[in-house]
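Hey team,

Filing this mostly as a record. A colleague (T.K.) asked me to run one chain through the structure pipeline before their review meeting, and I want the input and output archived in the tracker in case anyone asks later how it was produced. No errors, nothing strange. Just documentation.

Input sequence:
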Amino acid sequence: MAQSIAIEQKQRRESQMAEMEDLSSLLGDESQPIEFTSGLVGLEEWRRFIIISHPAGESLRLLQSLDDDRVSFIVANPEQIVPDYRVTLSDADAAAIKFTGGRGPISTDNSDLDLYCILSVQEEPFSVTANLLGPLVINWKTGLGLQAVLTDSNYNPRHPVAGQAAGQSTAPAKTTGKGA
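Output structure:
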């Protein structure tokens, strides 16, 4: 019985590896795996992702799980939604993704880091919102990412994508050091 379980597990791993190789060949260079060592907030079981182009447009991307091919999120650069969007990583969050690029607000101007926000689409009534309170921070040098939890911020987890919400602060925010 133990031998048949081991064989089944080996076959499952081989099948998953073949699926990942097929996916990587379709994606080309854009498919560098990203490890969210603590998962995403509320979704800690999914930790390995890739970012791929979204068919709806070049400003959108898909954050595709490598742990479960049914799991993906539409993401965008938050600076395309709020042009002066900035995040200051806590020391703990910077250490979690092994970022040593200095202190102060980060933006997508930094070639080692990318910022993304998860978009939510509501159908009835139709609306698109961006989670600016929990940005994804990816260190491409290390292949590590985290979902930061911003404090001292007036950013909104449901920021309307169609325009700047009245009274929305665009001041740099700090993370708690409890990134997911």
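Quick notes for T.K.: The longest strand covers residues 113-122. Residues 163-172 have pLDDT under 50 and may be disordered.
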